[in-house]
């Protein structure tokens, strides 16, 4: 019989959330509007006209949610701080009530022996900064560093993440128009990309200067990219796609330069290169202490550069289920960008869940997905990938951006009418993995 995969004793098990997706209370205690409030207000942008106005009401129920985290035995909880709660207009003096909320949260975690991991930006840009150009405006990166400094100084947190998935902001927010701010413009998208990376670097510098001993890094969604067939055209297309999915973010951060082939392609479409000023790449390549890796799906492309799906897809149709991709991307990052420990900051699956008459949520598909991905991660670790921990996306069902509440990624079910939480079978399964440190 195959022996169970055993994880190191100090391996960190956790779960992730993001402010706009769970908190609700979007007008309370001085929170200012964000680009997502604006985006949701436009009919047709979000399925069923949903918004994060109430979400999982975590802003009021955080104590109950902290108890859930403790009951699952988790060692780490990754959440995001809503910039418009801290600076309602994106600059100037902090809003005390906003800071107090996250202080209570961090205190509550400490009382339960759970380590916080805080994301500074999970897409809820203060609307006023958007009105001044948003990420296309270099000044937004400076404002971000100022906001980060407020958070660093106010909150007793060791581990920080700067920008959540800059690629998703660039692609969904600026190229495909499916996320806030809803543009479809390659020329503007890659200018925003440079300023997002600059913001990451500026904030990382601030942390290192003010709080030595703490750690910071980006949270990158990495998509292992493969040719769909064995032709030179498909291999070439996969390499190009890898530039847009992965190297465009990894290279500047780890190597202080943009990938040449990708920058050339971008420069045929717009003025990104004009916005790269002397010294910027030095800022962006400020050494990071930890790399947040988010993995959901691979990308297979054919000889025409079109994405093709070769495996089962999830309810989220962009999500092709391919656990081996997690192994491949971890081994590849370890090889090409060595020296920085990795933490899985997101990995998970949307399933059409429901509560059965006996009160259980039987999400076997999610359990199988998590088991297969943990197994792939374990094999990558055996092959030398330095992975410190794993956070499942997500602790709770939540507002799934343009899909509204129609897609449930939680290991805990949320009834949005009563706000009752029910741990799904996957949560109970995960609790056992966490407790035993073993995959059986
Ligand atoms: C991530 N794609 O978003 C986000 O960080 C979470 O907030 C989100 O809820 C989760 O994944 C599930 O979607 C992504 O199209 C959105 O490849 C889209 C893609 C990937 C990640």
UniProtKB/TrEMBL annotation:
Pfam families per UniProt: Glyco_hydro_1 (PF00232)
Renumbered residue ranges of the record's region Disordered: 218-241
Residue ranges, compositional bias (Basic and acidic residues): 232-241
InterPro entries, per the entry: GH, GH_1_N_CS, Glyco_hydro_1, Glyco_hydro_1_AS, Glyco_hydro_1_beta-glucosidase
EC number of the protein: 3.2.1.21
Keywords: Carbohydrate metabolism, Cellulose degradation, Glycosidase, Hydrolase, Polysaccharide degradation
Catalytic activity, as annotated: Hydrolysis of terminal, non-reducing beta-D-glucosyl residues with release of beta-D-glucose
PROSITE patterns: GLYCOSYL_HYDROL_F1_1, GLYCOSYL_HYDROL_F1_2
Similarity comment: Belongs to the glycosyl hydrolase 1 family.
Protein name (record): Beta-glucosidase
